[in-house]
Amino acid sequence: MLRTSAKSLFVVLALLVLCAGGPRRDADKPEDAHRIKLQATETVEAILDGLSKGDFGLYTSRFSDILKNAFTREDFLRLQNLFQKRLGRPESAEYLGHYFQSKTTITLFKARFAKDSDDVLIKLVLEEKSAPPLVVGLWFDSPRLVK
User: Which helix (DSSP H) or strand (DSSP E) does residue 143 occupy?
Assistant: First the structure.
């Protein structure tokens, strides 16, 4: 059941990313890169903190309205349970960089969790038509999450 829910959540998140709109940048200025890194890092920290504490409000605090409406508290509790069992508490998240695609900014993080010696890739998709940018897509890439 969790596996099906995770697949459904992935499909919903993927559709939201494809439908997301926002400004498109032609070049990455140093001041933009710094701002993107700071905003994305704050957002990932809030998401991981919310996941760790079981705080649905904190976890979704930077989600777009579409994503908030597509992700229920029950979905969150299943996700949190899966993370607790397979990965444990988040220990760190390191910003790797970003790129632009489909009018969104995609940021990548390398995260470490207490029960996994491997890195977990976090892909955070942001729309920048609001300030601060809102999350329109979120993926955690770890083999331990799909067992």
Answer: none
